[in-house]
Amino acid sequence: MLFDAFLDSFGIFAQQPILMLMAIAAVAMGIVLGALPGVSSTMALAILLPLTFGMAPGVAMMLLLMVLVSSVFGGSISAILLNIPGTPGAIVTQFDGYPMAQQGRAGHALGHALIASTVGGVLGVIALMMIAPVIAKSAMEFRSPEFALLALFGLVLLAYTVEGAMLAGLLSGAIGLMFGMVGFDTMSGVARFDFGSAILQNGIDIIPVTIGIFGITEVLTTLSASRHGALPSVPKIGSLIPPRLEIARVWPSWLRGSTTGTLIGAIPAAGSAIAVAVAYALERRFTRGEARFGKGEPRGVAAPEAANSALTGGAMIPLVTLGIPGDSMSAILIGALIIHGLQPGPMMFVEHPDMIGTIYGSLMLATLLTFAVGVVFLRVIVQVMKLPTLVMMVLISLLCMVGAFAIRNSLADVSVMLLFGGMGYLMTLIRIPVAPLVFGLILGPLMEENLRRTLILSRGSWSVFVERPISATILALIIMVMLLPIIAHWRRRA
Amino acid sequence: MKSTLRRHLILGLTTTLLAGPLAFAPAVAQQFPDKPITMIVAWPAGGAHDTVGRLVAEYLSKELGQPVVVNNLPGAAGTTGVRQAAAAEPDGYTIGVMGLHVVAQTYMNASATPFATLAPLAVIERSPAAISVRTDSGIDSLQAFVNKAKSDAAAIINSDDGPGGFANISSLLIQKAIGTTFATIPYQGYAPAVAAIASGETNTTTVPTAQMIGLSNSGDVRILAVAGDVRHPRAPDTPTFTESGFPFVFQDFVGLFTPQGVPEDRVARLEQAVLSAVANPEFLATAQSAGFIIAPDGREGFAAFLDRQDNAVYPILEESGLVIVNQK
């Protein structure tokens, strides 16, 4: 029944060429909007939302889903080519994507991102179609204690995988945690560390931070290198298709990333930044051998890209099973459904199975179209790497400014962006890695909120963490990860 | 000769055209608005404020003959967007969208814009507070809930949307109305609070009706009572608090405001345009099918409504230690 509706939605596209053209246009628009720093997938949807009010509900959903899916991939383009994340879901793609581009492998990096996105997208939709109720049920087992420990797990994984000096990495992570404490306390509503400024009340937004700490830092580093007469030469682009051997090495990352993305997407209100942070941390910890994370490791591109695309399907799970948004993007989809008089939630399977079929079909088609349009698009867009380095730097600075401003038309975000840009440069000079700071900023507030809520719910008892099976498992993993280096050290000495 | 004539003609016509606006200056001044109007929504796209705001914007632009552009400026519990709208040029070209959060933030946050410094334009939508329980709790009426809360207070764990949020204030006011207390746990907004009752981390929630329909239809959650004057159109079987024997009416709302100091003729034009936009049958049909309770009122009515809201909210905020500025 549902599967019929899913197939029917493809039939509708095949019969109506105009719909197909609209879909292709929407996908192209999504890629461009996603690639523009500051214009997130959520914003791309918000831009399109009023246009869909007058459309038939099915067509409206289709267009929104096309833009959503393609913008998630679009975000990786600016991350890889410019070292600026186009969307929150792309904040870790650049850790390895940009170094790859600098090594003359921009094409490969984008190719990896596109393939991983497509695989992640398809797997996410399949999971949504086949096992949504199961995932929804296990996502329900994921409550405050599990969330708190998941965030802690991410932080621990990270601490042990920082390049070079571990202490410097921990310091950077701790700075990130501290910045994560700024703003309204989610439990009591008290403003913390706002120094009486309205700007800081909302906390430090992750997007201007990543734009500054990667984009501006990169510009400053390049400029100081050019003063010493060592302007890096313009990197080559290379082919879009990654070498076959490399794909053979990378494909497990697609599956790991997709699983992480689907599961975290299914947890309401978790969000893509958390999914990619966890996917990347897992990837770094659980791949052995020749991996060179942070220096252009393709798996560092593939895993988070698979995760953020799978997340789109995963985020639909709470939408169709509970009628609540999995992230800020599906919140807009719910708004679009409601305005057409459709109530998202479990009853939609009974009342409007055709709409469910349309959602599934559009998601699948959007993923495939993104791949097709992406292949054409990337050939053009990688040409930006042919610009002389200094011109590139001007372009990056400009996009950093515009991107930070575009988040909510506020100069405050631009100041935050510049501040972190300067800070990132100084940290780079004294060899403190900046990536852990970003992780601290993402995972810290998540851990704090859920830890405190857990303790309120358990009336102050910490035993809840070992009493619940999933949280006990995560806790065991955390302890294991922490003990491993000690055991390894002890065995080497023995 | 011919070309000279043409040149004169063009010159003359151009001058007339240029002079036109000058000659009719007073008439043009009445032609407010003559450029697009910005509507600032202090919450993210897709929520109730955004959806109602965009619907109104669509019909308002037909009334005014100018585009009404919605701009989402979320952040800091809605204070960021409200502050920006309040600080805009008072020329009538900026409209803000507000809800109960503005009244609460007036007392909770020194950086928030006090609601008294805004110029209320019109209230559009009102949605009553509600309380829902998990069906597996066995509680099937408000009276049963009250009995349970009185006999075993620890059995009830409520999820709300964080300090100063509508669901949070609702839970505090409901505790007063039913004369007993229960634990209420803060979450970051409606979605996680609904997810919490869906997962069983909590067993009741004070998130309002519209967000609960999905879970209520599937039978996972029972909406016990709504705090409206009448029943909620989306949940016609759910009684009001008053019907259940606990007289209590408390509503969130979506209203429009302008900065103070907008010329009277422009405010009047906007008010009239908004009220006729929301009286449009097409608007009403769309809004009702989306589950919004459209109960419009103009400037005076909105101001009086805000005062009633203030009187309801202030004492409970003060009791809960949330009043840190603008003490009465």
TrEMBL record, chain A:
Pfam families in UniProt: TctA
Bilayer-spanning residue ranges: 20-49, 109-135, 147-179, 263-282, 319-339, 359-382, 389-407, 419-444, 465-488
Keyword field contains NADP: no
UniProt keyword Transmembrane present: yes
Domain DUF112 per the UniProt entry, residue ranges: 20-438
Keywords assigned by UniProt, alphabetized: Membrane, Transmembrane, Transmembrane helix
Protein name per its UniProtKB record: Putative tricarboxylic transport membrane protein
Organism this protein belongs to: Pseudorhodobacter antarcticus
Automatic annotation (TrEMBL), chain B:
Pfam families membership: TctC
Keyword set includes Signal: yes
Signal peptide stretch: 1-19
Keywords for this protein: Receptor, Signal
CDD domains on file: PBP2_Bug_TTT
InterPro entries: BUG (IPR005064), Bug_dom1 (IPR042100)
Family the UniProt entry places it in: Belongs to the UPF0065 (bug) family.
Protein name stated in the entry: Tripartite-type tricarboxylate transporter, receptor component TctC
Organism: Pseudorhodobacter antarcticus
